[in-house]
UniProtKB/TrEMBL annotation, chain A:
Domain spans labelled ABC transmembrane type-1: 137-326
Gene3D superfamilies listed in its UniProt record: MetI-like
Protein name: Oligopeptide ABC superfamily ATP binding cassette transporter, membrane protein
Main location: membrane
GO biological-process terms attached to the record: peptide transport; protein transport; transmembrane transport
Organism whose genome encodes this protein: Apilactobacillus kunkeei DSM 12361 = ATCC 700308
Membrane topology recorded in Swiss-Prot or TrEMBL: Multi-pass membrane protein
One GO CC term on file: plasma membrane
Automatic annotation (TrEMBL), chain B:
Membrane topology (UniProt): Peripheral membrane protein
Keyword Transport: yes
UniProt-listed GO biological process terms: peptide transport; protein transport; transmembrane transport
Keywords associated with the record: ATP-binding, Nucleotide-binding, Peptide transport, Protein transport, Transport
Keyword Zinc-finger: no
InterPro entries cross-referenced by the UniProt entry: AAA+_ATPase, ABC_transp_ATP-bind, ABC_transporter-like_ATP-bd, ABC_transporter-like_CS, Oligopep_ABC_C, P-loop_NTPase
Primary location class: membrane
Name of protein: ABC-type oligopeptide transport system, ATPase component
PROSITE patterns in UniProt: ABC_TRANSPORTER_1, ABC_TRANSPORTER_2
Length: 339, 313
């Protein structure tokens, strides 16, 4: 073999033209930004996409219903109380206005109620449960937005500052967090009720107190890791200011942690509100919250089960959807799951 | 190749870099080292892992505040830069090429913005078009396609990424580049590519390098002078050829005896010289002594003669 190679004439080889090597460096694959790439991966996750659609649907319906004035969640009709669900044109037990009474199914829509349709039934004061559930969903989603807001502002800023400055400042800030964390949420809420009336503002303040702590801790841990990465050192050795490093280098690399953690803060905040309303120190009557609806429905669960089923299902749906979407986002943002 | 009378661009005097000072876990990463780098030369820094090479590099580029000693760059003490302007000037004069091409580029930034970071900080571009033009020129300088500017780092191979890192360092037109093991994370075929690129750039742009590595054959190929470090101390400094021909310190000899040679005959008869590091901590006062012209060895007073004999034997 070696001998043969030697016999090749000199002109058997041609030198490459100048710049030909540059072609070797071409990348044919289309350029994907981080967001596009993550979105592509999220779309492949069916459960997460369904959750996303459910959440969008709940958002649109619950906030859209606020625009219809006739659709009142608080107007009472004492003569139309405790009616089971009845939807026009549907004759399925449970949705056709019948109730099981004394072992037999009877039509509850008699007398004054004969011409009324409560899609999801009415409660003990004759209020439309459908409207009330939507109102409660609206409050839950509002709480979700509020919790996200505090996560993104206080939580992220606290974490980045604590991690980036480090040293004594970090130690001090972490001790403060631990002290805040050691006070149960419920105690904070009850103390707040000494100064404030029960209601949304009090709940928001209670959430502002503690909901961002987990975010701050995660962001701090991630910042500590990023801080010693070489690209941050490179930025420092170029003379970049700390403020710009935080915005150009830290924040973009923290996005996945931030988004994922937000998705897990939201359900716990929603549940916190529902819990407070359930035990009676949350949203005051006559306004509805999923918690108060469940609390009311639970009292007559054995006779009028639909009064608890409806808000309970919506609450579970909300929490499951946020959790599954959070899971999906975590996978989508994790570059290691790139196939 | 090297102009012996070239002015000193960098003087490191008794540099000490300790961490966790005064605590139980105090680490003396760099312990009293002194060396000079002349303009236009490549100074190689070798030593095993944890010997303080990288720390030395980072202390020079002022990423750490030195515990003691002085670092004088172009006549100015690095840790006493007063004005913002001086600081900025220094930052653009000294640049670092990092070890890990996967960690040294921000995964969320486009190549264009990574390279232009230094341009932005120092306002070196007149407008956006000028900035793009400079980035494209830099990409071509390091042998990359200018269409790469709009891509993200994860789309590149290790060698390409390292070249992006080099382009970023070159963007601010530095005089002095600290190459912190720029090739140890690359495979062998790409190593040559990057090292040759560094050599070309040195010629074209009159750069001075501090080349940190533990691959001795590569260091010999690129360096004019070499310093050997161990336990945060400088043990031997000499011209590259001199160091390889006449290693004086036991540690240098041990290091060199471990360099693989692509020759099975030789490899079969390889003699590994063991090094007993306890000699260093026997309490004797040692400092760098010039045994031969430009050949320094860390020695105690009573060892000087021994090293001189070694050189002549």
């Amino acid at each position: 073999m070696a001998d043969k190679a030697k016999q090749l004439p000199k002109d058997a080889f041609e030198p490459l033209s100048d710049g030909a090597h540059l072609d070797n460096e071409k990348i044919a694959a289309p350029s994907l930004t981080f967001v596009k790439d993550s979105w592509r991966r999220l779309k492949k996750n069916k459960a997460a996409m369904i959750s996303l659609y459910i959440l969008i649907f709940l958002f649109v319906v619950s906030f859209g219903s606020a625009l219809i004035p006739a659709f009142s969640s608080i107007s009472t009709h004492p003569n139309l109380n405790n009616l089971p669900p009845r939807i026009p044109g549907i004759d399925i037990p449970g949705f056709n206005g019948t109730l099981v009474q004394g072992g037999a199914r009877v039509n509850a829509y008699t007398g004054a109620a004969a011409n009324h349709y409560f899609w999801l039934g009415s409660d003990y004061l004759g209020r439309d449960l459908f409207a009330r559930t939507l109102f409660g969903t609206r409050i839950s989603l509002l709480i979700a937005v509020v919790a996200t807001f505090f996560d993104l502002t206080i939580g992220v800023a606290y974490g980045i500052i604590s991690g980036w400055i480090g040293g004594k400042v970090d130690t001090f800030m972490q001790r403060v967090i631990e002290i805040l964390l050691s006070i149960p949420n419920l105690v904070v809420m009850i103390l707040l009720l000494l100064v404030l009336k029960p209601g949304i503002p009090a709940i928001i303040i209670a959430i502002a107190f503690t909901s961002w702590i987990n975010m701050a801790r995660l962001v701090r841990a991630q910042t500590l890791e990023l801080k010693s990465q070489e690209f941050v050192l490179a930025a420092r050795s170029l003379g970049e200011s700390s403020f710009k490093i935080a915005f150009k280098h830290l924040l973009p690399n923290l996005t996945s942690v931030i988004i994922i953690n937000t998705m897990f803060t939201i359900p716990s905040a929603i549940f916190f509100e529902a819990f407070l309303s359930f035990i009676g120190i949350g949203v005051p009557a006559p306004a509805a919250s999923l918690g108060t609806l469940i609390s009311n429905g639970q009292k007559s669960f054995q006779f009028l089960p639909y009064q608890m089923w409806v808000p309970a299902i919506v609450l579970s749906l909300l929490m499951i959807a946020f959790n599954i979407l959070g899971d999906g986002l975590r996978d989508a943002f994790d570059p290691k799951s790139r196939e | 190749m090297l102009d012996k009378d070239a002015p000193k661009i960098l003087e490191v005097k008794n540099l000490k870099q300790y961490f966790n000072v005064g605590r139980k876990d105090e680490v003396r990463a760099v312990d009293d080292i002194t060396f000079n780098v002349h303009e236009g030369e490549t100074f190689g820094l070798v030593g095993e892992s944890g010997s303080g090479k990288t720390t030395t590099g980072r202390a020079i580029s002022h990423l750490y505040e030195p515990t003691g000693g002085e670092i004088i760059f172009e006549g100015k003490d690095v840790s006493k830069l007063k004005t913002k302007k001086d600081e900025k000037e220094f930052r653009s004069d000294i640049q670092t090429i990092f070890q890990d091409p996967y960690a040294s580029l921000n995964p969320r930034m486009k190549v264009k913005d990574i390279i232009a970071e230094g341009i932005d900080i120092n306002h070196l571009a007149k407008d956006k078009a000028d900035r793009d033009a400079q980035v494209e020129e830099l990409l071509e300088t390091v042998g990359l396609n200018k269409e790469h500017a709009n891509r993200y780092p994860h789309e590149f191979s290790g060698g390409q990424r390292q070249r992006i890192g080099i382009a970023r360092a070159l963007a601010v037109k530095p005089k002095f580049i600290i190459a912190d093991e720029p090739i140890s994370a690359l495979d062998v075929s790409i190593q040559a590519q990057v090292v040759n690129l560094l050599k070309d750039l040195q010629k074209k742009r009159k750069l001075t390098y501090l080349f940190i590595a533990h691959d001795l054959s590569m260091v010999k190929y690129i360096s004019d002078r070499i310093g050997v470090m161990h336990y945060g101390r400088m043990l031997e400094i000499a011209d590259a050829d001199e160091l390889y021909a006449h290693p004086l310190h036991d540690y240098t000899r041990s290091l060199l005896s471990a360099v693989p040679v692509p020759d099975p005959e030789f490899e079969r008869q390889r003699e590994i010289v063991d090094y007993d590091a306890s000699v260093e901590s026997d309490g004797k006062q040692r400092k760098l002594v010039e045994i031969a012209p430009n050949h320094y060895v860390r020695a105690a007073d009573d060892e000087i003669q021994m090293y001189k004999d070694r050189l002549n034997s």
